[in-house]
Amino acid sequence: MKVVCPNCGRKAAVSRELAEYRYNESGLKNVRLKGGVTETTCSECGETYVRVEKEPQLLQVIALGLLMKPGYLTGPEMKFLRAACEMTQAELAAELRHRRETVSERESKLNPKLTMAEEVLFRLVFLRSFHAYLSREGKNHLTDAHREQLSDFSQRFCEFASQVGQRMLRYVIALEEREGLWHLGAAA
Ligand SMILES: [Zn+2]
Predict the structure, then answer these.
(1) Is the pLDDT of residue 183 over 80?
(2) CA 41 to ligand 1 centroid distance, Å
(3) What distances in angstroms separate CA 82 from CA 36, 49, 86, 144, one per listed residue?
(4) How many A from CA of 40 to the centre of ligand 1?
(5) What is the pTM of this model?
(6) Same domain, 125 and 47
(7) Tens digit of pLDDT for each residue in 94-148?
(8) Residue 185: its pLDDT value, please?
(9) 1 C-alpha to center of ligand 1: Å?
(10) 136 and 116 in a common domain
(11) Are residues 84 and 172 in the same domain?
(12) Through-space distance between the first and last CA atoms of the chain, rounded to whole angstroms
């Protein structure tokens, strides 16, 4: 069945559902959508349009998956998360106590080589920002079940971060007491 083309206005466009679609518009290389994507092609002007169903919800579900992903985030994933919270590079830099250039540089790299402490801090900032964003009027597109998943994970991640932090702190204090670590450092 032919529909009106949004580009040329002629009734010459045909829509079809795509079985699989590489979702490059997300900025992530490895997201493939299976179903829920319609492609409309016009035989008159040659224009092609792709429509992704429930896109706002889909983007937030991807963000949720990235926040809970084990291991390190890639630069494009960091950029995706920042966009999901509608944050600018400057706003994120202020939260992380970084320069804006540092944020920009990391987002451009597939492997931004963050230390574990930086990665943990990064997740904490994003978990908090995503929560805050979803609480704003009209911004939440996640289901209650997904919101619950996010809350549970955030709670567990905060506990993990605080344990890691305390362990490191105890280690540093013990070293300082035993060996006067910082005095050695200063003498070298
Ligand atoms: Zn057309």
Answers:
(1) no
(2) 8
(3) 25, 27, 6, 22
(4) 10
(5) 0.85
(6) no
(7) 999 999 999 999 999 999 999 988 999 999 999 999 999 999 999 999 999 999 9
(8) 54
(9) 15
(10) yes
(11) yes
(12) 79
91 Cα: distance to centroid of ligand 1 (angstroms): 41
Q: How many angstroms is it from 2 CA to the middle of ligand 1?
A: 11
Q: How would DSSP label each residue in 111-159? A: S----HHHHHHHHHHHHHHHHHHHHSTTT--S-HHHHHHHHHHHHHHHH
Residue 70 has pLDDT above 50, yes or no: yes
Do 141 and 115 belong together in one domain? yes
* Ligand 1 centroid to residue 155 C-alpha, Å: 51
Same domain, 44 and 92: no
Is residue 50 over pLDDT 50?
Answer: yes
185 CA from centroid of ligand 1 (Å): 71
Distance 56 CA to ligand 1 centre (A): 27
Structure tokens at 71: 């291991």
Q: How far is the CA of 18 from the centre of ligand 1 (A)?
A: 20
User: Is residue 186 domain-resident?
Assistant: no
Distance 14 CA to ligand 1 centre (A): 10
Q: Are residues 71 and 140 in the same domain?
A: yes
| Residue 97 lies in domain | 56-179
Per-residue tokens: 96: 């992380």
